[in-house]
Amino acid sequence: ILMSIVVHSFNGFTLIALSNAVSENTVSKHYYFFTIQISNTSGIIPVFPGGVGLRDVITQKILSSAKVDKINATMIPICFTLVFTFWSFIGALFFIFGKLKKPEDENTGENVIEE
User: Does residue 24 form part of some domain?
Assistant: First the structure.
């Protein structure tokens, strides 16, 4: 549960940073935390890979219902998806090209896992 709280908090802070970047000040900051939780929940519905598209539409609809300018309400979720995709790509590169240290036997110092 703690990990979920941390991840949703960082996602909320990302939405706040993006809203500040487009000078959006009509919605209070705690509303973005509510928005990201609802959007991520809708993103688990398997309509598109990774929830991309559906999560953006839900975020845009929630922000529009809060009287956010239509252009900003559309741009904020798209930029969020770009940030999310960028960091997912970076994580994938580390996963693919990262070298894991093979466990060694304490007595002999040789690799336990043979290739």
Answer: yes
C-alpha span between 80 and 61 (Å, rounded): 15
- Cα(107)–Cα(52) distance, integer angstroms: 50
- Asked, for residue 104, whether it belongs to a domain, the answer is no
Q: How many residues does the chain have?
A: 115
Residues 20, 79, 68: CA angle, nearest 5 degrees: 50
- Is 77 inside any structural domain? yes
**CA Rg value for the chain:** 20
Give the integer Cα–Cα distance in Å for 72 and 113: 53
Total count of domains within the chain: 1
Can you give the pTM of this predicted structure? 0.76
- What is the per-residue pLDDT across 37-83, written as a single tens digit (0 to 9) for each? 999 888 888 777 767 788 899 999 999 999 999 999 999 999 999 99
